[in-house]
Design goal:
single chain, 432 residues, alpha+beta
Length: 432
């Protein structure tokens, strides 16, 4: 077998193959004999069909089977001999396969370029101060009050700022707007609640709903800005018919000991403030640590001057996309109806994903040099924690991860976390 390696770039490689016709004929003969034992051909007893007839009758299927069996084995063998490790399965192209002729094909793949991480002990990092913003405790107390709010029916006056208006809404295109509203957006909406004065309200709703009372009906139009989300309403003028079902006023609880016992497991307001301050301080310190880590990864990424394999970048973009979709679903949103330009999303993730891949590759190289790895106990502990969170047994989680190739990803993640810890311990971290 003849192979020829062509380096298109530091990451892209082409490996051409030419397999002797004798090898091809042997494989074709083997596959044809397998077909002959099972084939049913009129005029012949099963298992007694001549090989020449089998080759003629099942030529395309035989050549397909030969290619799918022979090519992967030849590629794996050639890669091992040359010490090449593709970052993803090679793309097989230009296959020429005929009986009596050499098998020719091309394998295209990407590899990780040589990585020089430089001097990675004593990296200079800056840790910002973990200081609470003025009024942070009071601001969180107000958010807790908002969550504990009570609503009371209003029957003796019209709706005003701060009230919540409960209504049914029908949305239709305005006569002056040529844009079509999607069918799902034009369906009647029942029991819609709008708190007058809330900054998140659609434009114009406060103006048209202030002063309403129960059992009234209101017709009004709204023109949405060009950058409005969801995107299907952006730049449109929409008519609304609102049937008011009720008005409610908001009653915020007083900040006292009783409030503290309602929203937490402490018994006094002072104790609640101390708890909030402690939690916020912990978050601030965690954020400061996160910024140090982010600075470290940025510096590592900057040390990699070579281009990175596009397959790894695409894989990281896919991971970010899946994570974003999962967050939408956790919030009860249908990702396909969220008005997201998925192509634009992928384009925006190109640069940060490339940086992530660079820092990851440098971490892997440092781990190799420092002999940092994940032990079986490390992996088992991670699997146990995942099983506990998911409410399944560790054995079931492990079995599924092994089937999906997830154990190797866990091991890689642990190794990289250990490497980050190693680098932070060796770094020169300045506070301020």
């Amino acid at each position: 077998m003849k192979t020829e390696l062509t380096e298109i770039s530091e990451t892209q490689k082409h490996l051409s193959f030419e397999v002797p016709s004798e090898t091809v004929s042997t494989e074709i003969q083997r596959v044809a004999q397998d077909y002959g034992r099972k084939a049913r051909v009129p005029g012949f007893r099963q298992g007694k069909v001549p090989t020449t007839v089998i080759k003629q009758r099942y030529k395309d299927q035989i050549l397909y089977d030969v290619a799918n069996d022979l090519i992967p084995r030849l590629v794996d063998e050639a890669l091992r001999e040359r010490g090449l490790e593709p970052v993803s399965a090679p793309d097989i192209k230009d296959v020429v396969l005929e009986e009596g002729q050499p098998l020719k094909f091309l394998a295209e793949f990407e590899t990780v370029p040589p990585i020089d991480p430089g001097d990675y002990t004593g990296i200079s990092l800056n840790k910002p101060p973990a200081v609470l913003e003025v009024g942070a405790v009071d601001a969180l107390l107000e958010r807790l009050r908002e969550r504990a709010v009570k609503w009371h029916p209003v029957e003796d006056r019209p709706a005003t700022a701060g009230d919540a208006v409960l209504m049914d809404l029908i949305r239709t295109p305005h006569a002056s707007d040529s844009a079509e509203i999607p069918a799902e957006a034009s369906q009647p909406m029942q029991n819609v609640s709008i708190e007058l004065g809330n900054p998140a309200n659609p434009p114009g709703f406060d103006e048209h709903l202030t002063g309403v009372t129960a059992d009234q009906e209101r017709d009004f139009t709204v023109t949405y800005p060009a950058d409005y989300q969801p995107a299907e309403l952006a730049g449109t003028t929409v008519g609304y018919h609102a049937t008011i079902k009720g008005v409610r006023r908001k009653e915020l609880p007083e900040l006292n000991d009783e409030f503290a016992t309602t929203v937490s497991d402490v018994e006094t307001l002072d104790a609640l403030k101390d708890r909030i301050k402690h939690d916020l301080q912990h978050e601030a310190e965690h954020e400061a640590d996160h910024k140090v880590r982010h600075d470290l990864l940025q510096q590592l990424a900057a040390r990699m001057k070579s281009p990175v394999p596009s397959a790894l970048v695409d894989r990281e973009i896919d991971r970010r996309l899946e994570e974003f979709v999962r967050r939408l679903m956790d919030q009860g949103m249908d990702p396909m109806k969220a008005g997201v330009d998925w192509q634009e999303f992928r384009e925006r993730q190109q640069e940060p994903s490339t940086e992530t891949v660079k820092s990851t590759l440098v971490l892997d190289e440092i781990a190799r040099r420092e002999h940092i790895d994940a032990s079986e106990d490390d992996v088992a502990k991670e699997v146990d924690q995942f099983a506990e969170r998911s409410g399944r047994t560790s054995a079931a989680v492990r079995a599924r991860l092994e089937k999906e190739g997830g154990v190797s990803r866990i091991r890689s993640g642990i190794r990289r976390e250990k490497t980050v810890t190693f680098l932070l311990e060796k770094a020169n971290i300045a506070n301020g």
